[in-house]
Amino acid sequence: MPNEENDYSFWTKYKRFASTEILMYLIMIIGIGLGIIFLS
Fold first, then answer.
1. How far is CA 3 from CA 6, 7, 9, 14, 39, in A?
2. What does pTM read for this prediction?
């Protein structure tokens, strides 16, 4: 049982980290896209 609880807490932390990573990548992609549009 303790292992399952540890896995659950690990996955919740990982999901939160993954969501922040996705947001950072989205912001980077939007910034690059805007830069290309302005440069072209």
1. 5, 6, 10, 16, 53
2. 0.55
